[in-house]
Amino acid sequence: MLVLLYSLEASVEENIIHLDLKRAKQMWEHLRQRYQPPIYSLLQQLQTLEQGDDSVEAFFDKFMAIQINLDSHDSVPDVCKRCACCEKHRQHNGIRRLHDFLIRLRPEFGPAKARLLSRSPLPDMVDALNALRAEEIWLQSIPRKPC
To answer: For residue 70, what are the CA distances in angstroms to 10, 45, 84, 94?
Structure first.
């Protein structure tokens, strides 16, 4: 792992020196373009992502890592981020993300998903994660019937 890290560092340094990037902003932009996963790859990962045997928390971490990478590809121009329109856009994205996360959970979380989706207003991702963690603990405490 350490060898890989040194190799990556040497590659990055060589690219910056070779391209004669003098400003930090230029360097960061070059690195983002060079090493950021392509949006197609991220969408493909998201398309196939399911909880499987992961805990709710581990699955949430995987889901959010992809979402954060997708957000970094967002080409929406800089806006004020404080007006009513920006707040509505942020809320809409949060609701879409919540639905996208919930739909990928295992079937035994069906009742918990229904409770979350019946709330008004809908919970944010952190509140949903906390409720799902509690549900997971409860589900693990139920004795399983032998087959």
So the answer is: 27, 11, 24, 14
In this prediction the pTM is 0.68
Do 11 and 62 lie in one domain? The reply is no
Report whether 125 contacts 98 (CB < 8 A): yes
Same domain, 92 and 21: no
Report the SS3 class of residue 83. coil
Tokens of 73: 């590809």
Compute the radius of gyration of the chain from its Cα atoms: 20
CB atoms under 10 Å from CB of 104, counted, come to 17
The boundaries of the domain holding residue 26 are 1-35
pLDDT at residue 81 in the model: 67
Q: What is the pLDDT of residues 38-91, one digit of tens each?
A: 778 888 889 999 999 999 999 999 999 999 888 877 655 656 667 888 788 888
